[in-house]
Write a structure and sequence with these properties.
The chain has one domain (4-145): Rossmann fold. It has five helices and six strands; from the N terminus they run βαβαβααβαββ. It has helices at residues 13-26, 43-56, 69-76, 86-103, 120-129, and strands at 4-8, 31-36, 59-63, 109-113, 134-137, 142-145. The longest helix is centred in the middle third of the chain and has 18 residues, at 86-103. The protein is globular and about 45 Å long. It starts with a strand and ends with a strand.
């Protein structure tokens, strides 16, 4: 059985190149782009996402909590910053984890992230937090089974 390859797709250029490499290696039929919408993105990001989906000819899943970052700040009674990120935690990571667990057996997926060479610390953090899935960073070619 082929594994499903899910690209955590931010709409940035590193996410695009990660998605492109995943599609080239595993095929569009085995690839899903997963976009966690914070409801605060620039209109051009949404345009770029549509262009990427059309170019790669791959399925896009868009998930959203329904709140924007300011609503999350109000609800958690805390203003996020570069050290503590309630918005990324609530509007992205927890939401993505919940969606994956609802829709897949985590043993049959590979998660891909597009982080460039300056973000190795972020990839190590992703590995640390992701206990059940295989995580790959296709910008820097290394992977680890969790």
């Amino acid at each position: 059985m082929n594994k499903t390859h899910i690209v955590s797709f931010s709409g940035g250029i590193a996410s695009f190149f990660a998605a492109k490499r995943v599609v080239e290696k595993y095929g569009k039929e085995n690839t899903i782009l997963l976009f966690a919408d914070t409801k605060m993105e620039d209109d051009d990001l949404y345009r770029f996402i549509k262009d990427c989906v059309k170019y790669l000819n791959v399925k896009l899943e868009t998930i959203a909590d329904g709140r924007d970052v300011w609503e999350v700040f109000k609800d958690v009674r805390f203003l996020g910053n570069s050290r503590i990120d309630p918005c990324s935690q609530i509007l992205k990571r927890k939401l993505i984890k919940k969606w994956i667990e609802k829709n897949f057996d985590v043993n049959n997926i590979v998660m891909h992230v597009g982080l460039d060479w300056t973000e190795e610390h972020r990839f190590r953090w992703v590995l640390c937090k992701s206990r059940k899935s295989t995580i790959q960073n296709f910008i820097r070619t290394y992977a680890r089974k969790i």
